[in-house]
Design brief:
single chain; about 130 residues; mainly alpha
Length: about 130
């Protein structure tokens, strides 16, 4: 399995681009199934949190909700025009908030655990050996 290390900006771009592509595929293949879109969001959050580099771990829980909204653009219902598209996006965000919170929680927990492990290793490295 690849082990890339993404910067904060890179993780945001990765997550947003992947969610947009998945949203387009969902629209084309399944007719904009919001449940499928939410299910696809969870592994993207997982990968984003795992692949973010050590110094940028705090960005993972921040970029995933933004990517969720970006990916909803092709999936959300549009009644026509900018106002219809915006209303469809707001409605989709409101009705799919559970997936949004779940994915953000996944990214936040993974980033927090990774940060705690890093801090523990750092303190163990600087602790003098006991006899």
């Amino acid at each position: 399995m690849p082990n890339p290390r993404l910067t904060g900006l890179g993780s945001g771009l990765f997550c947003a681009a992947l969610m947009f592509v998945l949203g387009c595929l969902d629209q084309l293949m399944f007719g904009a199934s919001l449940t499928l879109y939410g299910l696809l969001f969870l592994p993207v959050c997982l990968l984003t949190a795992i692949w973010t580099r050590k110094g940028d771990l705090l960005t993972a829980p921040v970029v995933v909700p933004i990517a969720f909204a970006v990916g909803l653009l092709p999936v959300a219902d549009s009644g026509g025009g900018l106002a219809g598209r915006l209303m469809g996006l707001v409605t989709a965000l409101a009705t799919q908030a559970g997936w949004l919170y779940g994915g953000t929680l996944v990214a936040g927990v993974i980033a927090t655990v990774r940060k705690v492990v890093l801090l523990r290793r750092r303190t163990d490295r600087h602790r003098p050996p006991t006899r």
